[in-house]
Amino acid sequence: MSRFRTTTVALVAAAAGFALSAAPAQAAPGDVTTTCASTATPAGYVDVNWGYSNTCGGQNFAPNIKQIKQLTGLPIGTVVQACGSTYYPAGWVQTSSYYSGSCVSFPNQGFNNNAWTIKRVS
């Protein structure tokens, strides 16, 4: 029974890891999705939060998951708080930058500006 349980737990963990690392499919404008940090942020998205999860591996509690927000389709004038770990898409401009504890993407990053407010202008 223990072997069956171990196999089941391994399969569930693998499925959860795949679900976190898979690119979001058909996300609506403004949707936020969680993914493993090792997955590149898709075009039209920005990182909005970083954290740690056993699901994405790692043993040193370094940030290994991120939340990404779909910007494509948001109306002109929309304002979004985003991490500086990805570039914002064309049609968006930075209106301010600041430090955010939610945007620490690697250990010992310091307290330099790591986030920005962006606004859709076209």
UniProtKB/TrEMBL annotation:
Alphabetical UniProt keywords: Signal
Highest taxon of the lineage: Bacteria
Signal sequence segment: 1-27
Name by which UniProt lists this protein: Uncharacterized protein
